[in-house]
Amino acid sequence: MSPLFRRGDRRTPQSRLVTLIRKPGCHLCDDAQGVVEKVCADLGVPWEQKDITQDEELHREYWEQIPVVLIDGAQHTFWRVSEERLRKALT
């Protein structure tokens, strides 16, 4: 487990960062973005997206898993994003 994210972490949601790794034209990525946008807006969590086609390292690491969601740099999930699971991980 990443030193940035540990079970039982008591940081506030606003101090977290969600990263969505995606690519253009990916319907699963669009679905994931909808979930990330909703949960992050509800909780006041900052989020960013990164295009796997623009970053060789991300492409090498995640190309078979996109979309991928990271929380504070640690992989949270891939392919299908559960609103309930993401919300729980951030609170």
Automatic annotation (TrEMBL):
<dbReference type="InterPro" id="IPR036249">
    <property type="entry name" value="Thioredoxin-like_sf"/>
</dbReference>
<dbReference type="Pfam" id="PF05768">
    <property type="entry name" value="Glrx-like"/>
</dbReference>
<dbReference type="InterPro" id="IPR052565">
    <property type="entry name" value="Glutaredoxin-like_YDR286C"/>
</dbReference>
<dbReference type="InterPro" id="IPR008554">
    <property type="entry name" value="Glutaredoxin-like"/>
</dbReference>
<protein>
    <submittedName>
        <fullName>Thioredoxin family protein</fullName>
    </submittedName>
</protein>
